Amino acid sequence: MATATGTVRAAAPASTRPEATARPESRVYTVEVAGRQRLSPNFVRLTFAGEGLRSFGAGGVDQRIKLMLPKPGRTVADVPDGHDWYPTWQAMPEEIRPTMRTYTVRSFRPERAEMDIDFVLHGSGEEASGPASAWANGARIGDRVAILGPDRPGSGRMWGCEWCPPATARRLLLAGDETAIPAVAAILESLPADSRGIACLEVPSEADVQAWDHVPSGVEIRWLPRDIAGSEHGELLEQALETALGELCAGPKVDGCPAASEAIAALEDVDVDNYLLWEIPGSQHQDPAFDESLDIAGGELYGWLAGEAGVIKRLRRMTVQGYGVPRGSVAFMGYWRQGRC
Q1: Residue 294 confidence (pLDDT) above 60
Q2: Which of 1, 78, 214, 300 has its CA 20 to 30 A from that of 291?
């Protein structure tokens, strides 16, 4: 679906929508910075342009891509391409290996061969935390980088998309820190007008609160600026999620928030220091010690939680064990790990 300006805003998929089954190939799209917009003290939007983007494989509202940044003094020609790009990239000497980081597509305009990506700026200048943040702080019009993404349109997690509420979902719960904001924004703008739910969003400062178009009136956005409360990362999000769960699971029994203890599946501990916390209904655990597939629960409540892995681990335990929400009703995604750039 496209707006009047041509921006692709993919419809929120439901479980009744079949996923494409032909796995896409990863393709390198060489692009350059065509626009820069400072959204707030801690967010900047960069617009990337390149003729190759006309054939980019758009997949959904929370689509993840890989951004490949040449090392200082190097060029985008260092980025490997082809079927064996990953082993080639791994084998490259550290001093020339392009930096690879994962980001969410904020919007995509195929007819203009443009893609917007919103960056969280962790500090500024020499104090910037992480190579991608440092690069985004200093990115200039004309800078060339590469985007690694699907070579054909489709839908589902093979396209880097996890948002997939079942057709039975009547109440939505989204929660995340600043790294999840671009995905949440795209999700909310894609929802049907009669959607209902709560979005709990923690950001560094009050000045980082954003205004978005086309968000359903029945979805309440609760912004949680850390600077006002002087809170540590994740504290406000945990408190807000507990409040939201209490509201969404209160009163008469709601399908998706069962009170019966037998509905609370055993919850394995996830070692977020050594394994990726990425638990999605219908997918396998990332931890090889687990060999379990989570069926999509198909209840009235559907949740999507993303952010710092240690925080998401605690929110996972609260949601499943504290409130009895089936694991097959919530996507839990550790986007990053504290202390690691």
Answers
A1: no
A2: 300
